[in-house]
Specification:
The complex is a heterodimer of chains A (304) and B (482). Helices cover 44% and strands 18% of the residues of chain A. Chain A has 304 residues and is an alpha/beta fold. Chain A has one domain: Rossmann fold (3-Layer(aba) Sandwich). Chain A has a 5-stranded parallel sheet with strand order 6-5-7-10-11, with helices on both faces. Chain A has a two-stranded antiparallel sheet with strand order 1-2. The longest helix of chain A is centred in the first third of the chain and has 24 residues. Helix content of chain B is 67%, strand content 0%. The chains are: A alpha/beta (304), B mainly alpha (482). Chains A and B meet through helix 1, helix 7 and helix 8 of A and helix 1, helix 8 and helix 17 of B.
């Protein structure tokens, strides 16, 4: 028996080493950049990191500001682009970022992207405030989905890994890195990460959680809370410089609130085009989707 | 719990460790552990159906004892009938109720009296066809005084629910499996390694061959009206390898897993696609079911002892019942009947036992005649699988009509892409390995034993990497639904 166990252990060990090498060589899992908190409590990526998204087709690099994306500040008119993983866009080449597409349409403007997965509406507002001091943009384009509003309010549901606001106390709640040590192990031990991503035990769990989240979002529209959220924003941020780029099918009640506070809106319309999304389980935009979005945003910029 | 799931990847080593390190001194404890593990394995899917398997075990355990004690012939018959009614009653209710209700309604509608079929909203308990037949054979064997009933309840319950073969066979007989629960099991290195190799090969068949073939078989069968004859042939071929990889892969994993625990299960597949006629095919395909029907249905009906009419009748009965066992759909009945039609000429001409050895034994290449016979048998089997896979008889008929049209000679439509071509390459490699290993219990049983260990290990790693990397989208085992 001990011979069998010993041989099995060696076998598994060498298997692990071989798989680790193969996964690294063929980039079978995405490389995930490491984060840190800046002095404002915003999570950014440690500068100088670079890696690949799945299968090595897409390379990413963290810029000097701690974001993954376009950071052009050459022109007099600077427009910031703030958002979550859609703007971070780690799954597509940088040429497919909003900043790149808009730059090609408006060569006389500079575009600066500050996107990171997990950014909520209130964090996007905080980022806009921080960018005011760092690069002083003329406008901020905030790309937001319906979820980003719900996830901003801690009274609806508390997410410790996201920046939220406690509406009742009017306090911004900083985020925390969720199991950072485990993530470090997972991201560095590629075989584990590969198994984590590939096998359905975890995926099913994630899907169930996502499903629950979607249900929460629909059932928890609280007009009073949302009113208070926007009152807080009007007091603490410069709304004049903001343009909200809202994802298709955003709840009309949210749109109406945004309008009431005089914030400018670009309401995206996919027209049911399924090519916008990456696939069945991933709604992030494809390169094509990003191009279509940028065209709709460009129309707005031209007219205003 | 699926064999190809992460859960099973955790479950198996834990049960293995407990079995050999904690419960190894006590046979009763080992059996109890296997019973609990088996119920956990089954209950993972839906714990509510555990009550069914426990009830079925109780009934056959006590009926078995009563059957053996009973002296009067009538009482014995009554007890056996009770066992049959209980077991087939469950099977009939869960598996066939809706089918019969709908078929009756359809029949009345055809006769001009349309009636509404009252369907029951029930799901089919996984593996019910397998464990029902296993418990049923136990009662019948006691009735025939082939075996004595067990008084070891834990052993019997563990025999009925033994997790490696619980949900998709092989269908074990009490004569083979039950005595193994009474004897002390010792760990044998070579047996465990052999078990691991068989599990590895089974996983390769299931995850790499069957799951990849499933993608294209589903695509082509689900949209068959859009494809030409040659593409439909491709779809039928993909399904042919899907069902073989799926089911024989499951059997390999089941047999290999059992070996890790010191048990020997019956062989369930013996390279059926290398058969030279349909009779040989049926001696090599799902052996545990074929022999079950032979022993408990065909022979009691008179087998091939009677006149020609009797032979024809019995052959049709056994094939149609076998088809119906697979599912509550007329397509399975037609599939069974078609196989009976293939088989009958061989039986009537007394040629059904022409090929009892392995094809081209000791040779690498078959003779032209052998090759031709294999190809013909394979072709007939592929055609029959169309009925097995199709949603309705009409669907199968349209599928076959298109195959036998002029579009058979047109170029297959572009449905494969690079991944489909890779699947074809994998199938070719798979056939070659199966051919090389066809004289063994499973294809890689002896493969690599004469090689230097680094090369042998490279083969293992290559298979595992193929499972992880080239595996198709996870699919349930087809036979779970039967």
């Amino acid at each position: 028996m001990s011979h069998f166990i010993k041989k099995s252990a060696y076998f598994v060990f060498f298997f692990g080493v071989i798989c680790e090498l193969i996964i690294r060589f063929f980039h079978l899992v995405p490389d995930i950049p490491e984060r840190y908190f800046d002095k404002h409590g915003i999570q950014r990526y440690k500068q100088g990191q670079m890696g690949f998204f799945t299968e090595g087709k897409v390379k990413w690099e963290v810029n000097n500001f701690g974001w993954l994306g376009v950071s052009d500040l050459e022109k007099d008119t600077i427009i910031s682009i703030i958002g979550d993983s859609y703007i971070e866009n780690i799954m597509n080449p940088i040429e497919c970022n909003q900043g790149s597409f808009l730059k090609s349409l408006f060569p006389n403007y500079s575009f600066f992207e500050a996107g990171r997965s997990g950014v909520t509406f209130i964090e996007a507002m905080e980022i806009s405030k921080v960018l005011e001091t760092e690069i002083a943009p003329n406008y901020h384009l905030l790309y937001l989905s319906e979820n980003d509003f719900y996830e901003s309010i801690s009274e609806i549901a508390r997410y410790s890994d996201r920046v939220q606001i406690s509406i009742e106390n009017e306090v911004i709640l900083d985020s925390q890195l969720k199991s950072p040590r485990m993530k470090k192990v997972l991201y560095n031990f590629k075989l584990l990460y590969y198994l984590y991503l590939k096998f359905p035990l975890f995926v099913e769990k994630q899907n169930k959680e996502q499903f629950k989240k979607n249900v929460i979002k629909i059932d928890n529209f609280d007009k009073v809370l949302f009113e208070k959220l926007f009152i807080y924003c009007s007091k603490n941020y410069n709304l004049d410089k903001l343009v909200f780029v809202l994802h298709p099918n955003t709840d009309k009640r949210i749109i109406s609130l945004v309008n009431n506070y005089g914030i400018r809106i670009v309401l995206l319309n996919s027209g049911g085009d399924k090519n916008w999304g990456l696939g069945k389980h991933d709604n992030h935009w494809t390169c094509y989707g990003h191009r279509q979005v940028s065209k709709q945003v460009a129309t707005y910029i031209e007219n205003h | 719990m699926l064999f190809n799931s992460v859960e099973f990847g955790f479950f198996l080593p834990i049960v293995f460790a407990l079995y050999w390190f904690v419960a190894n001194k006590n046979l009763r404890l080992q059996n109890l552990l296997l019973l609990i593990a088996s119920y956990l394995f089954y209950g993972w899917w839906d714990w509510r159906f555990l009550s069914l398997i426990i009830f079925s075990s109780f009934v056959d355990y006590y009926l078995g004892i009563a059957l053996y004690k009973a002296n009067s012939h009538n009482k014995r018959r009554l007890l056996l009938l009770t066992s049959i009614i209980v077991n087939l009653g469950f099977l009939g209710f869960f598996k066939y109720f809706n089918f019969f209700a709908e078929s009756f309604a359809d029949a009345f509608t055809l006769l001009g009296n349309p009636i509404e079929a009252s369907r029951l909203n029930i799901i089919l308990p996984v593996g019910i066809s397998f464990y029902t037949f296993q418990t049923l054979s136990y009662s019948i064997d006691i009735y025939k005084r082939k075996i004595e009933p067990t008084h070891n309840m834990i052993a019997f319950f563990a025999f009925v629910s033994f997790f490696p073969q619980l949900v998709a066979g092989p269908i074990e007989r009490a004569t083979n499996l039950l005595p193994q629960f009474y004897k002390k099991r010792n760990f044998h290195y070579s047996k465990a390694v052999d078990g691991m190799r068989q599990i590895l090969w089974g996983l390769f068949k299931k995850v790499v061959i069957a799951d990849n073939c499933a993608t294209y078989a589903n695509q082509i069968f689900n949209n068959s009206d859009d494809y030409n004859g040659s593409t439909l042939v491709l779809g039928a071929l993909f399904f042919t390898f899907q069902i073989y990889g799926d089911f024989s892969g499951y059997s390999d994993i089941a047999i290999g897993t059992s070996r890790l625990f010191g048990f020997n299960l019956k062989k369930n597949f013996a390279f059926p696609y290398f058969s030279r006629d349909v009779a040989e095919f049926w001696r090599r395909w799902h052996i545990s079911l074929s022999t079950w029907f032979r022993d408990y249905l065909y022979i009691p009906l008179g087998g091939s002892r009677g006149g020609t009419w009797m032979k024809v009748r019995n052959t049709f009965i056994i094939f149609i019942v076998s088809g119906f066992w697979h599912g509550a759909n007329w397509t399975f009945v037609v599939w069974g009947a078609l196989n009976a039609i293939y088989f009958l000429p061989l039986l009537l001409l007394n040629k059904n036992r022409t090929y009892t050895d392995t094809v081209a034994q000791g040779k690498y290449v078959p003779t032209f005649k052998e090759f031709f016979n294999m190809l013909t048998t394979f072709g007939l089997t592929v055609l029959a699988w169309v009925f097995f896979r199709a949603d309705t008889i009409g669907h199968a008929w349209r599928y076959l009509s298109e195959i036998f049209s002029l579009s058979l000679f047109s170029i297959p439509q572009n449905v494969l892409g690079h991944e489909g071509l890779l699947t074809l390459v994998l199938i070719t490699i798979f056939i070659l390995i199966e051919w090389i290993g066809r004289e063994n219990e499973y294809a890689i049983e002896q493969l690599g034993f004469k090689w230097k260990s680094p090369i042998r290990y490279a083969m293992y790693y290559a298979l595992i990497i193929a499972i992880f990397w080239l595996g198709g989208k996870e699919q349930e085992f087809i036979y779970f639904q039967f």
